[in-house]
């Protein structure tokens, strides 16, 4: 592998990904702006013009912010790689940390430093998104104190979970020979499954309060639906989502018998009982069709492919030099290869986005069809419209943009597919 070839391919793919993202984002903004004046015909009777225009303004504001973060993200990737940022950081740590902390200490320091710098760069943008963008449209409910507490808890959690996992993977890379990527994959899969098991009871409660669902009539309704669909869950919970945001949601969490149903309080406040039932039936549809399992299996397969590729790349000096880093002579290169790989991969995987989005939209249609069979299709349509309006989601996305990115079908297609729409 020639370093120059690696540089050229990487620069070309990064540029192509950035250009495609800019092109799609500006298409979406132009399309939404052009249709701001009028509620599209199928929604004329149900969606007020003011709500439609608020959704357009929110989409445009998010679009402008997206362009800014896109440009910044491209600059950061270039800065780390071809412009020598990672090389500078790495040689500094090799000179000053390696002698004192040894090879494992140096490698963990490199990973931690890269993550920390990334978080510091993101911090002002996240704050702006929460306290300016979301605030302006009335979505933000978080306070500066809560926001900082969230950041601190997130960082602490990342260190507590991430550092031992990183140490384990680095040890495997060092100790298990040419097939290290297979063992590392097994470790990552085990870690992710463990995370899914402890998330509902250990991690989520660090950030939110979960109360058992009190509303007896809704509870009876939901339990009847679950019995009808043949589902067992460990409990029905209401989460105080309103502490941070007005956006509403409902989800399943956990694995196997530890599954829980979680409703955001914002969802219960807004939807009628039959609408809540229909939304839950949609979520049950994802389980019935094994979407969750399929997605998990898909992500495990992609991780394995990625690690196998890294297993080969990490042996090539052209991989390091081509991406702007001089490989170490007196220290292991495992952490360096991991970091470089995670930095260089996104522009390549970006081009798989439309395939994954397409698959996800198909799953949504299947879950909707299941919901219509198990609950009231008209209630589902009503809930979708309310959630769309409350989240200020645009009803007039650019078709190309939606095809490329949307994990959920645009409202018009989704409602048209519900049997009740006739
Ligand atoms: Zn869904």
Task: Give the topology, please.
Blueprint: H1 3-34, H2 49-80, H3 85-96, H4 98-136, H5 144-175, H6 180-207, E1 210-212, H7 216-228, E2 236-239, E3 250-253, E4 260-264, H8 265-270, H9 273-288, H10 291-313, H11 317-322, H12 334-344, H13 346-349, H14 353-374, H15 377-390, H16 399-405, H17 411-417
The structure holds zinc ion (ZN).
Zinc ion binds next to α9 and α14.
Question: How would you portray this structure in words?
Answer:
- The chain has 422 residues and is mainly α.
- 72% of the residues lie in helices and 4% in strands.
- Strands 1-2-4-3 form a 4-stranded mixed sheet, with helices on both faces.
- A hairpin with a 6-residue loop joins β3 (250-253) and β4.
- Bound molecules: zinc ion.
- Zinc ion binds next to α9 and α14.
- Residues 282, 286, 364, 367 line the site of zinc ion (ZN).
């Amino acid at each position: 592998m020639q370093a120059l070839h690696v540089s050229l391919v990487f620069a070309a793919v990064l540029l192509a990904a950035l250009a495609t993202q800019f092109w799609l984002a500006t298409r979406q903004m132009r399309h939404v702006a052009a249709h701001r004046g009028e509620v599209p015909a199928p929604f004329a009777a149900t969606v007020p013009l003011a709500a439609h225009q608020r959704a357009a303004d929110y989409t445009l504001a998010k679009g402008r912010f997206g362009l800014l973060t896109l440009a910044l993200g491209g600059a950061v990737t270039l800065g780390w790689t071809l412009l020598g940022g990672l090389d500078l950081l790495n040689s500094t740590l090799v000179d000053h940390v390696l002698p004192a902390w040894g090879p494992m200490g140096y490698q963990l320091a490199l990973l931690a430093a890269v993550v920390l710098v990334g978080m510091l760069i993101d911090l002002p943008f996240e704050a702006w998104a929460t306290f300016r963008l979301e605030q302006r449209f009335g979505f933000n409910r978080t306070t500066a104190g809560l926001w900082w507490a969230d950041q601190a808890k997130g960082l602490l959690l990342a260190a507590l979970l991430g550092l031992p996992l990183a140490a384990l993977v680095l040890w495997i890379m060092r100790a298990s020979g040419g097939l290290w990527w297979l063992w590392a994959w097994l470790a990552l899969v085990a870690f992710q499954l463990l995370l899914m098991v402890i998330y509902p009871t250990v991690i989520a409660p660090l950030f939110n309060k979960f109360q058992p669902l009190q509303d007896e009539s809704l509870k009876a309704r939901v339990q009847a639906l679950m019995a009808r669909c043949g589902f067992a869950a460990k409990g029905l919970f209401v989460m105080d989502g309103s502490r941070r945001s007005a956006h509403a949601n409902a989800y399943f969490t956990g694995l196997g018998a530890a599954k829980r149903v979680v409703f955001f309080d914002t969802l219960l406040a807004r939807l009628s009982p039959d609408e809540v039932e229909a939304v839950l039936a949609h979520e049950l549809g994802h389980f019935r069709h094994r979407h969750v399992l399929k997605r998990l299996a898909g992500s495990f397969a992609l991780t394995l492919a990625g690690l196998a590729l890294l297993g080969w790349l990490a042996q090539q000096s052209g991989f390091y030099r081509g991406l702007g880093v001089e490989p170490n002579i007196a220290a292991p290169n495992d952490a360096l290869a991991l970091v470089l790989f995670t930095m260089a991969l996104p522009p390549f995987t970006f081009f798989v986005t439309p395939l994954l989005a397409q698959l996800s939209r198909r799953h949504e249609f299947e879950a909707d069809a299941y919901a219509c069979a198990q609950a009231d299709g008209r209630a589902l349509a009503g809930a979708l419209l309310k959630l769309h309006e409350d989240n200020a989601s645009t009803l007039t996305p650019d078709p190309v943009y939606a095809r490329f990115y949307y994990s959920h079908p645009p409202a018009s297609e989704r409602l048209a597919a519900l049997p009740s729409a006739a």
